[in-house]
Structure formats: structure tokens, C-alpha cells
Amino acid sequence: MAHPTRPYPATAQPRPRPRILPGFGLRGPRRDKHVLATADLGALALPVGDDGVLIGVDVQGRPSVLGLFRPGAHDLVLVGGLWTAQLITLRAASTGARVAVETGRPQAWSALARAAGGGQPCLTVHQAGRLGPQGASVTSPVLVVRDLTARPPRSRLSAAPWQTTLTVLPWLLPEAARLVGAADLVGVQRVQPEEAGILRRALSLPPEDVAALPALGDDLTLWTTRMHRQYVRAVAGQAELQLLGAPRRVDPPA
């Protein structure tokens, strides 16, 4: 240890602290502190949750957000109608994401493709089996919508980070149970009791949800994983209603 009276070596001389110049470094806040009394902590509420797109409200009327994009691949299944799938598509495009729709009914998506993005080609429509790699990235996430009837063929796209696949099933067949069970998130609209039974086995749904599914309104969707469930009522804006019409579960004839 150096002697307390011995001078520092030349290489260890203490250096004067540099003066902070305007624009170079933060001086810290100079405002009064915000203080919250302990008794008031119960009234403090912060909207903590997943980021994503606003798709409606829960049963308490609170906003419900659907997290679409992840650093890894993300698979969603919607057992429901075209109206809800297209509302999610519009909301995803409004956040700046690119949307690629692989469908056997391109006429049902053509008007949406023209309207989305304000003239920018953010939504493209592709015939079944004609969808190529999308090049998704953190700065350019991609939503792939597969609207290919209740028996969708296996996708030719490889899973990729920041690329989410939304598979739309207008109704549920027993052979689609594996697809539902493997999804990260499943949305279920009104279904027949037989379909609710398939969902019960595939998703381990409790009896009260199985009983409720055949009576859901056109604008109501149960979003569920194996651990969490939430009913969401879709709320569309005026421009969306003009484009999509009123909420509906059953799609009009092609």
C-alpha cells in the first residue's frame, strides 16, 4: 500500500472531472419529485401487457391487445369467419407490418388489398401454393394469412423470426385438431357443439367454455392458450365498418 504522504505516481495522478457541455451528457432531472403516499398505491394502475394490435374489448370493457409478432416464429389459428380475420389483417397493416394472404378465394380479399395501406402495397394476395419467402425482420414484420378452407394444405413457407402465420378455419374438422393443438394462440368464434367437443380435447377447455361456444355472438371471440383464456368483443371503427360491413360469423357465398 502506498504511504499516505507519498505523492501519486505520474501515471496515477487524479484527473479533473470534465465539465459537461451542453448537448453532451445528461444532467438529470431538475424538477420536483413525484411522491405517492402508501395509502394511494392501490389506486395506481398501469397498462402492463403485451404490445400488439387492438382488436376489441374484454368482458369488463377494457381494451384487448393481440400480440402478433415475436423474435421467433408465431402460429395463430382462428376458427371463425372472414370478417374477424380481415379486421385483424387491417389492424396489423395499420401498425406498419406487411401482410401476405394465401387464399383460395382471392375475390374476398381484393377490396381489402386495395384499401389497406392508403395505396401502398402492404397487403398482397396470393393463390394457394404460390407464396414465396417474405424476408421478415424486426424492422419489417410479416403476417401471413392462410385462408384455405377447413383442410388447409401444409405451408411451403419455412418458419422465420418476426413472421406470424394466421390460419383461418371457417369450421373445425376432427383432422384439424392437431393444427389447433400445436398453435401458440387460438381464436374461436361460434361453433357447433361437435366442434366445441373437438376444441375441448385439443385445448383442454373447461366445461363452461365448451357450453358457451355454440351461443357466442357474431362479434365475440374466445382467445385461448392452454393456460389463459379471454373473451374479446370486436370493435370496428367507422372506416372499417364501411369496408367490412357489420360483424358476422358466417361468410357470404363466394
How does the SSE layout of this entry go?
Layout (H helix, E strand, L loop, with lengths): L52 E5 L5 E4 L7 E6 L2 H13 L3 E6 L6 H6 L7 E5 L14 E6 L15 E7 L7 H6 L2 E4 L4 H11 L3 H6 L7 E5 L4 E6 L3 H7 L10
Parallel strand pairs: 3-7, 3-8, 4-5, 4-6, 6-7
Antiparallel strand pairs: 1-2, 1-10, 8-9, 9-10
List key phrases describing it:
globular, alpha/beta, 254 residues, 6 helices, 10-stranded mixed sheet
Shape: globular
Largest sheet: 10 strands, mixed
Global Rg: 26 Å
Q: Can you give the mean pLDDT?
A: 82
Q: Would you count the extended β strands for me?
A: 10
Strand content: 15-25%
List the total number of helices: 6
Distance between the amino and carboxyl termini: 88 Å
List the uncertain runs: 1-12, 18-34, 44-50
For the largest sheet, list the strands in their spatial order. Answer: 2-1-10-9-8-3-7-6-4-5
